[in-house]
Amino acid sequence: MSSALALEATGVDRLGEWDPARVRGLSGLLAALNETGEITAADVHIARGLTRLTGEERETHALAVALTVRAVRGGSVCLDLGGVPVGPDDERTQLWPAVPPEDWPRVHEDGWVAELAGSALIGGSGEAGVHPLRLDGDRLYLDRYWQEETAVLTHLETRGARSVPVDEAALAASLAEYFPGEGFADQRAAAEVAARSLTSVITGGPGTGKTTTVARLLGSLLDQDPYARIALAAPTGKAAARMAEAIRAAAADPTFPTRHADRIAALPATTIHRLLGTIPDQGTRFRHHRGNRLPVDMVVLDETSMVSLTMMARILEALRPGARLVLVGDADQLASVEAGAVLGDLVAGLRSRPGAPVAELTRNRRFGEGIGALAGAVRDGDSDAALAALTSGNPSRRFIGIDDLEGIVTPAALRLHELAAAGDRAGALTVLEEHRMLCAHRDGPTGAAHWNRRLEEWLAASLGHRLGRWYPGQPLLVTSNDYGLRLYNGDIGVVVDTGAGGLAAVIADGSHPQGRLVALARLNDVVTAHAMTVHRSQGSQFQDVSVLLPAIDSAILTRELLYTALTRARRSVAIVGEQEVLVRAITHHTSRASGLAQRLARSAGSVARGHELVDHAARQPPTLRDGDAV
Predict the structure, then answer these.
(1) What is the pLDDT of residues 580-607, one digit of tens each?
(2) Which DSSP string do the residues of 58-116 spell out, in sequence order?
(3) Per-residue model confidence (pLDDT) at position 21
(4) What is the pLDDT of residues 96-134, one digit of tens each?
(5) Which residues of 28-49 are buried (b: 16+ CB within 10 A; e: fewer)?
(6) Across all residues in the chain, what is the average pLDDT?
(7) 322 plus 196 within the same structural domain
(8) Structural domain span for residue 124
(9) Helix ranges, 397-530 (H)
(10) Which residue among 155, 397, 533, 622 has its CA within the 20 to 30 Å range from the CA of 36?
(11) What percent of the residues of the chain are helix, what percent strand, and what percent coil, each to the nearest 5?
(12) pLDDT single digits (tens) 292-337
């Protein structure tokens, strides 16, 4: 049965004959996958260009390249050829309904891997020369990502081989002072792991005390070297501001030893881009690199789950050989928007080693039983427990309808409007953190843009007048870097009245409760943020969160997305949507294809046992369609 006929038989939606996304002149699998939107026109044109350039005109080569480009577009570092269906009975064919199972090339039986390995288009993992793609076992990479993954691996291996000088008696005494008693036992163990390693990972869910551990670890390390130069960084401006705020709060705790408290509390936190030194119009090239290392002795990187493979490679190459790197984050959250799931790969790969420099904090110190139990059920993929938690009558976790949502968000928006109209900058910034609507999509009928318009309609009705382009209490989200204004992707703010009817934006900077004023006329890439995407909310915390579920067929509605949304809330979470949609999200676990974890384990001469390094059933990333942009 041909792939074209299979489309008619399956009833899968096809692109129109004259749709610009459809590439003419294709046949077989490429045609079938392009006609259903699984492979875009850009994927096809890249594949055609590379195969023609190297004289490889066979469809199987073009298919492999197109699928690899598609995989990277969906967040994977490579294409795992072992995840491609290999026969009619393979359950992975369900991921590709447009293609009958018998039409797929059998990866091993038909010699596809061997055929690709002999191609001029594709180099081997240890092969010299320039090749557009690289093949390592069953993993096929675009050369850029192969080089970046290899660079990260090499840096980690080199750093792992270096010994870290430690004064054992002083370290033991310092850890006992900074982490006294059984209440700090898990954090003390994590700090000891970090103190003995050049590269370490501290992972755990929200509220498990990661930042407190870091602050006290810094005090202990300053006991060892009082003149150590320390840098704090995070992927976004908001995450950096929250990191600095949390470090200050930890240093102000009455049980925190005082000798380094002021210095630790005064440490600024910056974005990774600012730390590395952004060069305008050079997106992934920075002032600090292997030829101009960062002038610091220690870097603490928060929200590491948001860091792409490319950025991790840049960070590692910019570190001095003896500088410490402490990676902090929650491996169960959404991975970076760009290719890679570096934190999860590091946790999986490094855990396989004796004396692994990985510490996991599991004791919850923030959430009550409400949000914590719900988030835990979602993280573990237990949809029954999640539904039971949401229907138990606990007000901190519940399903609500649209009418209930209006009754929650409109009063919150009115409070924000009143404070902003009165010129209360500090008060407005505080209330800005009270509530947020979180969506899977940016656009579409359940996207953030729709819900921002809807709330503005409710707010205008309550105020009795229409809202202008700018209005007091309008939450703002910066969506791209503006180095002239010192505004960075992820920064948030609110429009306030500055007197005599003048309006300006107050941007939260984490260092002053009044924020920083910016003229509205100078703002370029900002959006209203009563509602925002879950991706954009990473690094943020709100007292209350309303999660607006999309339709059940949303490709990006996953367990990781839902878990990330739930854990943005400190006090309560309300879910708007159908139970069926929630269950689908919890059971839809995504796994990005990558070789870093396996290569780390392999380089240590062992296998990362007990961790699911590859999930064939979910290996292919979802196709991003209209409204999926973040």
Answers:
(1) 888 888 888 877 888 888 888 876 643 3
(2) -HHHHHHHHHHHHHHHTT-SSEEGGGS--STT-GGGGG-TTS-GGGSPPTTTTTHHHHH
(3) 62
(4) 555 655 556 555 555 677 777 777 788 877 776 778 888
(5) bbbbbbbbbbbbbeebbebbbe
(6) 80
(7) yes
(8) 29-137
(9) 402-421, 425-432, 448-463
(10) 533
(11) 40, 15, 40
(12) 999 999 999 998 988 889 999 999 999 999 899 999 988 887 777 7
Residues paired with 436 in a beta bridge: 545
Picking from 349, 289, 309, the residue whose alpha carbon sits closest to that of residue 148 is: 309
Give dist(CA 262, CA 433) in Å, integer.
27
Token pair of 392 as six digits:
């138990």
The two tokens of residue 449 are 């843009």
CA angle 300/303/304 to nearest 5° reads: 75
User: Is residue 202 in some structural domain?
Assistant: yes
Of the pLDDT bands very low, low, confident and very high (cuts 50, 70, 90), residue 611 is: very low
CA–CA distance, 15 with 577 (Å, rounded to integer): 29
Stronger pLDDT, 414 or 555, i.e. the higher one:
414
pLDDT score at 58: 75
pLDDT at site 13: 56
**Does any domain span residue 164?**
yes
The residue-averaged pLDDT of 211-235 equals: 92
Assigned token pair, 102: 């018998």
- DSSP one-letter string for 419-455: HHHTT-HHHHHHHHTTEEEEES-SSSTTSHHHHHHHH
Contact 36, 43 (CB under 8 A): no
pLDDT at 624 over 50: no
As to burial, measured by CB atoms within 10 angstroms (0-12 exposed, 13-18 middle, 19+ buried), residue 397 is buried
Q: Is 199 in the same domain as 294?
A: yes
What does DSSP assign to residue 560?
A: H
Tokens for 245, please give them. Answer: 């705020």
CA atoms of 212 and 178, how far apart (whole Å): 10
Task: Give CA–CA dist 108/171, Å, rounded.
Answer: 54
| Percent of the chain whose predicted confidence (pLDDT) is above 70 | 83
Residue 270 shares a structural domain with residue 178: yes
Q: What is the largest distance, in Å, between two alpha-carbon atoms of the chain?
A: 77
Instruction: Say which CATH number the domain at 324 has.
Output: 3.40.50.300
Rounded to the nearest 5 degrees, what angle is found at the Cα of 91, between the Cα atoms of 89 and 92?
A: 120
- Rounded to whole angstroms, the Cα distance separating 210 from 190 reads 9
Task: Please give the pLDDT value at position 247.
Answer: 92
Pairwise CA distance, residues 274 & 292, whole Å = 15
User: In sequence order, what are the beta bridge partners of 482?
Assistant: 487
For residue 317, tell me if it sits in a domain: yes
Residue 417 has a pLDDT of 92
Q: Which two tokens stand for residue 335?
A: 């991975």
> pLDDT of 342-371, one tens digit each?
888 888 888 776 678 888 888 876 655 678
Q: Same domain, yes or no, for 69 and 178?
A: no
Calculate the alpha carbon distances from 327 to 71, 466, 569, 579 in Å.
26, 47, 23, 36
Output the pLDDT for position 60.
78
Picking from 325, 360, 395, the residue at the C-terminal end of a domain is 360
Higher pLDDT, 278 or 272: 272
Strand 269-271 relative to strand 397-400, pairing: unpaired
For 326, counting Cβ atoms within 10 Å of its Cβ (0-12 exposed, 13-18 middle, 19+ buried), the class is buried
